[in-house]
Amino acid sequence: MRTLIVSPGPLCGRTPVPADKSMTHRALLFGAIAEGVSRLRNPLNGGDCLASWAAVQMLGVEVEEPVSGVWLVHGRGLDGLQEPSAVIDCNNSGTTVRLLAGLLAGQSFHTVLTGSEQLRKRPMGRVVTPLRQMGADIAGREEGRLLPLSVRGSQLNSIDYEMPVASAQVKSCLLLAGLYTDGLTVLHEPGPARDHSERMLKAMGAPITQLGSTMTVERPQGPLHPLDITIPGDFSSAAFLLAAAACIPGSQVTVQRLGVNPTRRGFLDVLIRMGADVTMDQWDESGGEPIGDLHMQPTTLQATTVAGNEVVTLIDELPLLAVVATQAQGVTEVRDAAELRLKETDRIATTVAELRKLGAHIEERDDGFEVEGPTVLQGAHVDSHGDHRLAMALAIAGLMAEGATAISHTDCIADSFPGFERTLAKLGARLDE
Ligand code: S3P
Hints:
Strand order of the largest sheet: 22-23-1-24
Bound molecules: shikimate-3-phosphate
CATH topology of the largest domain: UDP-n-acetylglucosamine1-carboxyvinyl-transferase, Chain
Helix content: 25-40%
CATH architecture of the largest domain: Alpha-beta prism
């Protein structure tokens, strides 16, 4: 168990951040069913994505790293995957298991999926229910609501499905299953969940259409083309550095070559609404996604409300928003975010409990929280609960607090941001382990 000790201070400098986690998962899983070799430059070498790497290898797909930072995925085509000889362990990765469930439901073999103790508590009914409507043969604990899941590949039929939650994992799962049906699958999403799957699969030649919140997918006429992409920096990782720079006097941070897909950068839009001093330049495109350099420096921030459709565009950044809200003037409210309770931890409960230890004025709501600021946080001993995003949000709170903040259980940071501590230190943070 690692403990990170953070002393207060600003962040200054220019840095890239590790590659986008969501895109790396997708490139591995989609590359596995392309015809030929996909080339992934700058993939994320983090715990969650390594679970996807191991999973595709168990399905008979060779993945290699001939030079550091380049992964080659030897795709076997839509119908070339092989039955794994053992249970696939998705570790902590919800994206791996939910996307795999969709990919495997229409195969001609049997797979068993499981995960860590943490993942085995997370809801799988959201993918199992629609997959069963497509004719999938899936069994699991508590009638398929929890892992392990047994997925017996079968012929799938297309469905017209109204997704009850705005979830990119559910959407991507059903898009993958839709590639294996005979008819046209129609999906309606209640909010703008991240659209990396649509972009990447379309670039590979998959017949996916999109009109507003409705998508269609069907079986491709020919093979899927392999990918040749450079994966941009992960906005969700950069958010920690940007939040520190927005709040801590004396900071000045530039994050380079960052993915700024509109379905991912809700946190930036919220910071701008709060008055943040941010500029973006070096616009470009990478892997079919917009990228840019973001420069942030501190200003006085005003409280805001995040609710409704906006929530999904910053779902992973909401614990961090709670930290920022402790420094803003007024009461910041987060509503319609009950999904937060179903992440790596119940992120409403864990965020509220840990920020209170630092002296934050934060109240729990069923579907979010309220934070009153500004508050001078006081360093204390806090716990990540094994949740990578909470661990990093608490480290940023530690940079803002008076005195030292000790965060226990920080090994999980490597699930999404390997080298987080090194990056902070490079930007001038004083850390001890
Ligand atoms: C992800 C989607 C989101 C997000 C998760 C990664 C993805 O989850 O919270 O960190 O890669 O598709 P949901 O789709 O469950 O909202």
